[in-house]
């Protein structure tokens, strides 16, 4: 069996935390993931992996390390993002990691340099132990998960695999489902008129009130009825609203932006249909109601069949490690796993314990990073098959 050194894991993780990788789309003027990607590439090269890079421009870089198998086995892809949210306002030193009570503090320690360190250490332990695999292992350290996921979108253009693991933090639980989301914009058209001229004006804001009432009905009477066993129900909320120009003027427009969190089986068309129905119902009863909408962004949900080989492999590894059967989980937040699954790579999410993701104090539990690496190492051996 392999053995993963806590000291070596800490060494790697602390070097990763010291390299600032705030996402420049979230923190203007920050340097991007380039330096960290090159560090990861060097590290994987020293492990004996074939390393390549995908340059996404503006110092946004993916680092990919491939451990070639001897052939005839399944290929596994390990995926983790290098970018972090901003460091401003943190009450710990964000870039100088400290180890206290078994916790590693620093920005990105939990989300998700800890998970990236775990997947790299897992592969390193196999290489160091001289274990030969039939299938290939592809480590993808990617940019931009915290904003637009340009990193993983570039990965799936060039690489594929028979199964994937994203090591986002899951408290060492095996996650096989999460929600997706759809963003839309509704515009209600009114007619500007002097505040005293009710016979001329059409009040776009009051009419948008009918749309809001329709969304309330959708949320509380329709969406509550459809439950997913791991994810609960979908939801809709009004995110931003604007309209009107002056106190004594009928508002000529009102614009609402909204987000619909969708379940597996739902998609962009689901949300479009719901909005169209609300608008139609209103115009049916109110001839002066004039509205249009556009749905402009979708992130698909994730749902992996528990019978997929990758789920079975990680489950049996988990069972060996923990002497208990795993309970599959769903999480509410979106991850890059959905992009891999959409590209035909059945993907689970499994990562270490910690706290404070995106918060002022963030840490990951070092022993949990090592456990995660151990489960992943066993999963790779099972999934890719050890050759004689
Ligand atoms: Zn993350």
Top keywords for this entry?
388 residues, Alpha-Beta Plaits, 2 domains, six-stranded mixed beta sheet, four-stranded antiparallel beta sheet, 9 helices, 24% strand
Main pleated-sheet profile: 6 strands, mixed
- In what order do the strands lie side by side in the largest sheet? 1-2-6-3-7-17
Kindly report the CATH topology of the largest domain.
Answer: Aminopeptidase
Q: So what's the CATH class of the largest domain?
A: Alpha Beta
Rg (CA only): 24 Å
Give me the secondary-structure topology.
Layout: H1 6-18, H2 34-47, E1 50-55, E2 61-67, E3 76-81, E4 98-100, E5 103-105, H3 109-128, E6 137-142, H4 150-158, E7 163-166, E8 175-178, E9 180-189, H5 204-222, E10 227-228, E11 232-233, E12 235-243, E13 253-262, H6 268-285, E14 290-299, E15 302-303, H7 309-322, E16 329-331, H8 337-342, E17 347-349, E18 354-355, E19 363-365, H9 366-384
Parallel strand pairs: 3-6, 3-7, 7-17, 8-16
Antiparallel strand pairs: 1-2, 2-6, 4-5, 5-19, 8-15, 9-13, 9-14, 10-11, 12-13, 18-19
Helix pairs in contact: 1-3, 3-9, 5-6, 7-9
The structure holds zinc ion (ZN).
Zinc ion (ZN) binds at residues 81, 111-112, 145, 168.
Question: Would you write up a description of this structure?
Answer:
It is built from nine helices and 19 strands. It has 388 residues and is of the alpha+beta class. It folds into two domains: 6-178 and 302-384, Aminopeptidase; 180-299, Alpha-Beta Plaits (2-Layer Sandwich), CATH 3.30.70.360. It has a six-stranded mixed β-sheet with strand order 1-2-6-3-7-17, with helices on both faces. A four-stranded antiparallel β-sheet has the order 4-5-19-18. Helix 1 crosses helix 3 (109-128), helix 3 packs across helix 9 (366-384) and helix 5 (204-222) packs across helix 6. The protein is elongated, with a radius of gyration of 24 Å. 48% of the residues are buried. The mean pLDDT is 97. The structure holds zinc ion. The site of zinc ion has 5 residues, from helix 3.
């Amino acid at each position: 069996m392999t053995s993963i050194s806590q000291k070596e894991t800490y060494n790697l993780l602390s070097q990763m935390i010291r390299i600032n990788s705030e996402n420049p789309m979230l923190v203007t003027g920050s340097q991007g993931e380039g330096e960290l990607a090159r560090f990861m590439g060097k590290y994987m090269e020293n492990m004996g992996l074939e390393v390549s890079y995908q340059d996404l421009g503006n110092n946004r870089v993916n680092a990919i390390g491939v451990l070639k198998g001897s052939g005839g086995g399944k290929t596994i892809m390990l995926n983790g993002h290098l970018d972090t949210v901003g460091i401003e306002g943190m009450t710990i030193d964000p870039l100088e990691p400290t180890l206290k009570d078994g916790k590693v503090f620093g920005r990105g320690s939990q989300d998700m340099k800890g998970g990236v360190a775990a997947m790299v250490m897992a592969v390193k332990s196999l290489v160091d132990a001289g274990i030969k695999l039939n299938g290939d292992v592809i480590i993808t350290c990617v940019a931009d998960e915290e904003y637009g996921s340009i990193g993983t979108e570039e990965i799936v253009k060039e690489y594929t695999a028979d199964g994937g693991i994203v090591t986002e933090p899951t408290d060492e639980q095996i996650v096989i489902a999460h929600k997706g989301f759809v963003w839309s914009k509704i515009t209600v058209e009114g007619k500007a008129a002097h505040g005293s001229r009710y016979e001329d004006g059409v009040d776009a804001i009051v009419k948008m009130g009918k749309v809001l009432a329709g969304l309330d009905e959708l949320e509380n009477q329709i969406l509550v009825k459809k439950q997913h066993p791991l994810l609960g129900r979908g939801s809709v909320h009004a995110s931003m609203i604007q309209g009107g120009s002056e106190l004594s003027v009928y508002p000529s427009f009102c614009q609402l932006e909204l987000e619909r969190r969708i379940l597996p089986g739902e998609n962009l068309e689901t949300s479009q249909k719901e909005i169209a129905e609300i608008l139609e119902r209103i115009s049916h009863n109110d001839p002066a109601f004039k509205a249009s909408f556009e749905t402009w962004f979708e992130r698909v949900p994730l749902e992996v069949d528990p019978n997929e080989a990758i789920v079975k492999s990680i489950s049996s590894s988990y069972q060996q490690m923990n002497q208990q059967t795993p309970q599959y989980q769903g999480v509410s937040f979106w991850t890059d796993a959905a992009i891999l699954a959409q590209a035909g790579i059945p993907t689970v999410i499994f990562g270490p314990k910690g706290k404070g993701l995106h918060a002022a104090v963030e840490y990951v539990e070092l022993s949990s990073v090592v456990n995660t690496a151990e489960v992943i190492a066993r999963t790779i051996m099972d999934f890719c098959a050890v050759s004689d």
